[in-house]
Amino acid sequence: MSKVKSKRFGLLISIFVICMILAGCGAEESGASSGSGGDDTLTMLVSETADTPGFRAVVEKIEDELGIKTKVEKRPGGPEGENIVKTRLATGDMADLVLFNSGSLLMALDPGKHFVDLKGEPFMDKVMDSYKEVVSKDGQIFGIPAKSSQVGGWLYNKKVYKELGLSVPKTWDELMANNEKIKAAGKTAVIGTYGETWTSQLPILADFYNVQAEVPSFAEEYTAGKAKYASTPEALRGFERIQEISEKGYMNDDYNVASYNQGMKMLAEGTGVHYPMLTQVLPLIAENHGELVNDIGVFPQPSDDPEVNGLTAWMPDAIMINKESKNVEKAKKWLEYYISDEALEVYTSKEKAIGPFVLKGVELPEDSYPAVKEMTPYFESGNVAPALEFVSPIKGPNLPQICTSIGSGTMKAEKAAKMYDEDVEKQAKQLGLDW
Amino acid sequence: MINSKKMYPLYFLLPAGIIYSVFFLLPTGMSFFYSMTWWTLDDWEFIGFDNFIQFFQEPSLRIGFRNTLIFAFTTMGGKVIIGLLLAVFLCSKIRNKNFLRSVVFFPVLLSTIAVGITFKTMMHPTTGLINTALAKIGITGPNWLGDPSIALLSVAMTDIWKGVGIATVIFIAGIMAIPNHYYEALKIDGGNAFQGFWHVTLPLSRPALNTVIILALIGGLRTFDLVWAMTGGGPGFSTDLLASIVYKQYAGGFYGLATAGNVLLFLFVGLIAFPIFKFLNRKEVDL
Lengths: 435, 287
Hints:
- The complex is a heterodimer.
- By secondary structure, chain A is of the alpha/beta class.
- Chain A is 47% helix and 13% strand.
- In chain A, the strands form three sheets. In chain A, strands 7, 8, 9, 10, 11 and 13 form a six-stranded mixed β-sheet that branches. In chain A, strands 2-1-3-12-6 form a five-stranded mixed β-sheet. In chain A, strands 4-5 form a two-stranded antiparallel sheet.
- In chain A, strand 4 and strand 5 form a beta hairpin.
- Chain A starts with a helix and ends in a 5-residue tail after the last helix.
- Chain B is an all-alpha fold.
- Chain B has helices at 14-34, 50-57, 59-91, 97-109, 112-122, 129-136, 151-176, 180-188, 193-204, 206-221, 225-230, 242-251, 255-282, and strands at 37-39, 44-46.
- The mean pLDDT of chain B is 90.
- In chain B, helix 3 runs parallel beside helix 7, helix 3 (59-91) runs antiparallel to helix 10 (206-221) and helix 4 packs across helix 7 (151-176).
- Chain B has a two-stranded antiparallel sheet with strand order 1-2.
């Protein structure tokens, strides 16, 4: 290479590097400039999983009826999404409307500081008290439900169940026996999608009905720092169940990297038969795989005792108003309309409920998904308990990773439980609880 | 006449000095302070060294030191060895030299996140390009990113692929700077190509070698984006590096602890890079 040429080569590199740096800065700036929009526009930050056809339809309806445009921004779910919300709140760069988890994750945001108190609003009368509890702190109420409630349990493919002559298991052992038969038939018994780590937690979170049935005081003592996962055998079972599923090789070959979308595809097409998951996946299956959603059913995570068999329920995400928004009044109108009967009608015309609504006087429609109908007997007989994150303000942020550690075989259940107890303690201290 | 000593008064430094202080010195100083607090962004409480102690006690945090060391030294080694070989090859008499040099440098220009996502897809155990190709010749490829025992090395491999171009360019510059008469002398003495590499190229491209080692090592110690795009620290905690742990503590809302992690990362990089830098510079030879 001659001298001139090598100089030119160097120059070229420097130009490239400078361009790259400038491009980086530019991208950051444009990403940050998303405060409140124009006069009749509200900005809204939602999680990817919440951006469903029903939600979109209501947003459009609000634009038609109230003349309020909504600029919806999407963020990822799980810890990464929480981080985005926390950062944007801390830097004062939050959208007007925020859709976020209710329960313990909301409590970790310091809602009193960031969100408008809706306690005195007349439209809040429509919201059930059981929901108000999970979006309240220090007597203030912060949000409305974004959709219906849902359950976390074992979604299963009924067609395959019929083919293999299986019946819905009432105990953990029966479930494992089913898994064995499914594995022998050459199908994936349990779908694992650790590519999105939050999905790995379901076998422990959905076990909470069983925990509270056997140790009724667990939630209270756990919040007070007295009950621990490692020292409560009934709570430890959740971790052990993940270990058992993994050790017996019931999961798909690529469970360590598979995504949520791949998981729902496997379940819908019947190549995978069980998926421990939230029923929020149902509308997505309906959207992507059409009629196949009718083959999907759900049963509670079975316990070791056939007498204890009930569903763990999740309260819907909340829609809240940013305290620093310049359009609080408009946002309140938005919320009021969102839970009105007209809005619900539009919502359910596009997307069916994934569980009972938490609004007064709203019944589950007749044409619900078969899986949702399967849930009704449990609700009617009262065999339902809210998940731990709705009865305690503390959830350790490392739970997804701890669960994938067990599932990928790098950690045993007992060690994982101890680690989670430490994680919870750290979270309690960060929340300022006196432990 | 102008006194040359007074040509640039000290206050000329002010603009740069202020920017440097506000955007670098001040945050650095503040981070040392906040690393010793319980911090919620609105409120803080001084707790001494508790955060640092926690960082060494908790297994999920401690694993970062080990992984970061493995990652930094593996990628550094890979970049040095492959980069040097490529540079020697690209400085020899071959056709399309400039084109090949561009090809080697090309991955450096790509966005790290894009590279991460691409390799994540290619490394998928059943549908990924790599294992599909291996299956064609009858080899069952491993679960590159899903197997906790090799996931970190898979990420390191990707980092080497992406970073080797920079190392090669620096080596090429170093080799080009070696005067030709050393090689002529070698030829007269009857030395072969390998002796030329071992006794001339290697010792005389020492400054380039040192630069590559230091750059690659510091880069490796601070890596975050690639590992985040490829594995997010998983499966479990098996590919967590210090930087990704700091990010996760921050994401979890443990601001004091995350800041302490950053201070540790800063000290860690300093403690490893500085002595190596000193050591390498002492051994440099003059041309």
